[in-house]
Amino acid sequence: MKETDFKFSVSVLAWPLYLVLLLWLVYTIEIIFPGDFSHFGILPRTVSGLKGIVLSPFLHGNIMHLFNNSLPLFFLVAALRFFYRNQSLQVLVLGVLLSGFGTWLIGRESYHIGASGLIYVLVSFIFFKGIQSKYFRLVALSLAIVVVYGGMIWFVFPSVEENISWEGHLSGFIAGYLLSFYTKTGEYQKPIKYDWERPDFDPSQDEFMKHFDEDGNFAPIPKEVVEDEITDEELKITNTSVDNATVVYFYNANKL
């Protein structure tokens, strides 16, 4: 991973925008056309409920449920796309599958719908991956996730409200944690701007570093005085030139 990998592009906003618009489109269709789409959700430990692993993130029970999931999903997907561009699609796809399958395994015998499982995947992945990278920008992002979404941790326990799928939240959180280890991002490499940042840099060969002693104290190198030596041959030529020099006398009649 290089610092130049963090580049803004249209996809940073397009991905979360299209995803959120798709959620609202599905909800609008459910309102316009009679019927209940909840049966497309996850029904744990049933064959018919397996389809909900893929479909459940796009389904919501009411407009408040959809609104509460839209804002965090937009910002988290945007952050994922910006900071983990090459891994973003993989995290989204595997996050939906793993969190959905986990809900199918441990969920109560009821239909589980909503994108909250994916939100927990993103929160968990961005937090743990940033800590693992030890890179200051990603660690700062992890801390920001804790500040903004840290309170969500209480909704992974069974003691929450009955109409909240804590199983989906817990599955998403675990899935994000596992993906932070599975997804490889490479070690951060700071771009080299100066010669002394290169791994093969030798201070003893650097003209600037030669002005410092072993303790780091400034010790300027004394200037060398170079004396020109005149050879016998050069001296002979010089004397010959003087002997052969033409002397010109000027006569001034005004002074007489």
Automatic annotation (TrEMBL):
An annotated Gene Ontology molecular function: serine-type endopeptidase activity
Gene3D superfamilies, alphabetized: Rhomboid-like (1.20.1540.10)
GO biological process: proteolysis
Membrane topology: Multi-pass membrane protein
Peptidase S54 rhomboid domain residues: 53-183
Localization of this protein: Membrane
One annotated Gene Ontology cellular component of this protein: membrane
Regions crossing the membrane: 12-33, 66-84, 91-107, 113-131, 138-157
Keywords: Hydrolase, Membrane, Protease, Transmembrane, Transmembrane helix
Name recorded for this polypeptide: Membrane associated serine protease, rhomboid family
Origin species: Flavobacterium swingsii
